[in-house]
Amino acid sequence: MNATHQLRCTNCGVRIAGEAARSDFRCPECNGLYEVIYPWSEGAGPWNAGIPPNSSTSSSVTPSLEVRLPNPGGMRHLWQERKTSTMAVDQSGVWRFRELLPIVRDMESVVTLREGNTPLYEMPRCAQLVGVDWLLAKHQGMNPSGSFKDTGMTAALSVAVERGFQWVACASTGNTSAAMAAYAARAGLRCIVFIPDGKIAWGKLSQAMDYGALTVQLKTDFDGCLKLLTKLVQQFPIYLLNSVNPYRLEGQKTPAMELVEQMEWQVPEHLVVPGGNLGNSSALGKGFLEMKHLGLIQRVPKISVIQAEGANPLYRWFTDENREMKPVTAETRATAIRIGNPASWKKASRVIEETGGWCEEVSEQEIALAKAEIGAEGVGCEPASAVTLAGLKKLVAAGRVANEERVVLVLTGHTLKDPQYTIDYHRGELLTAAEVAGATVSEQARHAALRKPPMVLEADEAIVLKALETHMATANAEDTQTTHGSPA
Ligand code: F0G
Q1: Ligand 1 center to 464 CA (angstroms)
Q2: Atom 15 of ligand 1, residue of closest alpha carbon
């Protein structure tokens, strides 16, 4: 048994050995969620406290090895050096940081598609729009299956392999299932996906099928899917790979390391993350707080979470003076975050509070505009990721982000995940008349400028030349106007 880590209930603090978790990853004492802790984790205390010394789950504890705290300078050097290695685990942008996630005993168990290693883009035009000097986007949609879920899936699925599971399963709004199906296929495991019927983007559904998952479409929403699946895993030997599985979050914390490494170990002032089931914001927060605790960085960024107005339970909690969590019936075109009863809300709310971040909600119209703006910067993302830019506009307007602060948007999914949304937007078929009417005059003007519906023409030389001549003349006139009309 691997005693390099334990699971601690984030609610009541009870600690158990990794293998002792129930199949639904809930604490039997209080129903809370676990987090993975290591001997060097904050508040870890005496390592075997609470774990029976002779239990089968703690038999090979070797304290001298476990209490050794990794050295920050040495780790930075090692992580950098691994970039030139030809070994798969070194090429992975998750396992390259393996000192901070010793969750598998044997690296042979690791299932990797060389996830992570995602670009950090400068976003000068979006920065100007929002009114900040310096805006970056960490594009997690550039992972192998096109979303940030790969970083968590490599971690948790490797644990499933090590523990001998043959079957894995998840409930999903699409990206988790795509990632799980890909990693399960690599490992030769069988997998089952529960998705809300008709409510996931085609790109994601097609991936689950392509990678050979058994896909079960249920006439319910994500929350209903997760509830049913939780029952299923209690009856069959199936390993649950939703983000209630704390090993998922260990992988999902590594973009925090990669990000500061890309910034030469400087820390941005603010990180803006979309919120659905709230695992990702929790994971990134854990990553930053652990790095600070280990002396790898001196401070943490403020982490703000943005939700869609129609799927905003955390925002409601955040603005409710009684601080009561009330699940909602979720509705948003950003289907990835169409979640009304987020499992990790307590973890995420702690991250917001500990880092001094904020929670915002954004409308469908604001999401569509932000997505088009990110697209026009040549970067692109899926609708759920665009809530970050839409939310940042609000944070700046409310004075919660100062213009000289360095801000990083976490773009969680690739633009090709949901092409229908993009096509509908550009054809003017996405937003309702009421939504458009609700936009400000300047927002309406930006929509009009950004929309690029295809030109449908006869294949006739004269017609095509004429149309392009007109189009180019208009565009050139607009450019001249912008250059001369914009403030210096
Ligand atoms: N962005 C994208 C593209 C997502 O797919 C998700 C979640 C989120 C943001 C929100 O992250 O849940 O950690 O707060 N997608 C899950 C899924 C629920 O099933 O693919 P979160």
Answers
A1: 43
A2: 336
Ligand 1: which of 204, 244, 280, 382 to mutate, most ligand atoms within 8 Å of CB? Answer: 280
Residue nearest to atom 19 of ligand 1 (CA): 172
Report how far ligand 1's centroid is from the alpha carbon of 344 (Å).
12
Ligand 1, atom 3, lies closest to the CA of 413
CA 466 to ligand 1 centroid distance, Å: 46
pLDDT of 64 > 60? The answer is no
Cβ neighbours of residue 357 closer than 8 Å, sequence gap 6 or more: 270, 271, 302, 303, 304, 305, 351
Q: What is the pLDDT of residues 159-170, one digit of tens each?
A: 999 999 999 999
Report the predicted TM-score, pTM, of the whole model to 2 decimal places: 0.95
CATH topology of domain 120-145+249-450: Rossmann fold (3.40.50)
What's the mean pLDDT in 203-213? 96
**CB-neighbour burial class of residue 352 (10 A; exposed 0-12, middle 13-18, buried 19+):** buried
* Residue 479 pLDDT: 84
- Give residue 338 CA to ligand 1 midpoint distance, Å: 9
Q: Fill in the DSSP letter of residue 308.
A: E
Contact present, 434 and 296 (Cβ < 8 Å): no
Ranges of each domain in the chain: 1-69, 120-145+249-450, 456-488
347 to 9, 32, 276, 279, 408: CA distances (angstroms): 11, 10, 13, 8, 21
Query: How would you label 42-76 residue by residue, b for 16+ Cβ within 10 Å and e otherwise?
Result: eebeebbeebeeeeebbeebeeeebeeeeeeeebe
Residue 172 CA, closest ligand 1 atom number: 19
